[in-house]
Amino acid sequence: MPGYHVWTIGCQMNKADSRRLAVRLEEAGYRDSSLLEESDVVILNSCVVRQSAENKVIHKLDSLRGLKKKYPQIKIVLTGCMVSYDDREMKNHFPWVDLFLPPQEWDAFDRWLYEHGTARIHAGPAPGKHPVSALVPIVHGCDSFCSYCVVPYRRGRVRSRPVDEIVREVTELVHGETREACLLGQIVDQYGVDLVACPDLADLLGELNGIRELCRIRFLTSHPLYMSDKLIQAMARLEKVCEHVSLPVQSGDDEVLAAMKRGYSSQQYLDLVRSIRYHVPEASISTDVIVGFPGETRQQFARTLNLLQEVRFDKVHVASYSPRPETYSAKSMLDDVEPAEKESRRTQVEDMQHEISAAINAGLMGQTVEVLVEGEKKGKLQGRTRSDKLVFFPGPRDLIGQLVSVRIDKTSPFALQGSCCS
Ligand code: SAM
Ligand code: SF4
Prior knowledge:
Order of helices and strands: EHEEHEHEHEHEHEHEHEHHEHEHHEEEEE
Number of strands: 17
Distance between the termini: 42 Å
Shape: globular
Largest sheet: 5 strands, parallel
Strand content: 15-25%
Low-confidence stretches: none
Helix content: 25-40%
Radius of gyration: 22 Å
Oligomer: single chain
Number of helices: 13
Bound molecules: S-adenosylmethionine, iron/sulfur cluster
């Protein structure tokens, strides 16, 4: 049986795209192979949002050059945000790659697989096709053009999937093992703006909430400009919608926010957080921050620290600014914060957040939480609370896919440990 191997780096959308490619390969008769040299098709799903991610992709591509030389029959596919529609330059740089697939070009992949693949049989439903928690892209692309971000150049304009298509997909997933749908979009709360009837995310959540076998619904990533009162109220009202919001702030300073072209002020962001916490008091909130944006002074950075201290997020993803080709900031602004200073700011954010997350999670000590069991890791069951906290506890495998009550007896900034009491 022919084998495939998928290597993924980057965001949840990339993980969702990789799963879709794997399912297509499985249904064409390929089987997942952990060994590259035993694979017939190797897929690299790339991320170029930051230079550090791009470096990892290039390193991986370089290592595949040797593989291709030794096993020329292996087909190598590069997809994800590194690939644009004009692949001429890429072909010169990486001639050992067989297919440059722009993100989410499923039909082009199917055609290529049909023409170049070695398997033809329809192998039935793919294993892993219905994960307990399924990533479901609902809106592709982004029109926001934040000054630092390469995503709109690589993933194109906003395209929402019709409500009925998403409901059909989730219904099919829950007929398998799926119990949680995690709805994805670069700006997930912009869902529907381009559809004729203009349904919004709150409408879609209402539809999905009615699917009987579905236990939980999540959505990410939200943009502060588009998170409406209607959406917050839907989160408060619909029992399957989990109390978790991923709401990138990026900076706590208004001048930096304006230079980033984010479209909101720090006060507007704080007001939004207040409103979320008023309507959904149990909500956990995570955020993204960029440090060392062009021109960011120490005082401006201190405002970011103040905002993080004021909001007390459950989780913060912090990145040092890196100029990305094609973006406004890379073309028009000087990357003038020294690398050592960026690193120091990044560490300060991490250290502060480490303490905040530790204190928030310690508050769960001794409490009983509802966990959806997603799988096993290192001999323990692994799942998440409604508020997106990772929980590990001992128990039998047949609890996978079930909602169980877990009493928390150990906490850390990153995860909780407990024992099953249901
Ligand atoms: N759409 C989301 C939003 O509005 O923030 C985030 C999507 S973006 C692909 C993921 C994260 O990567 C961003 O939140 C930002 O913190 C980070 N990021 C994007 N471009 C970056 C850059 N040039 N340098 C450093 N971090 C960057
Ligand atoms: Fe990038 Fe901004 Fe779009 Fe998020 S909203 S994907 S940061 S351009």
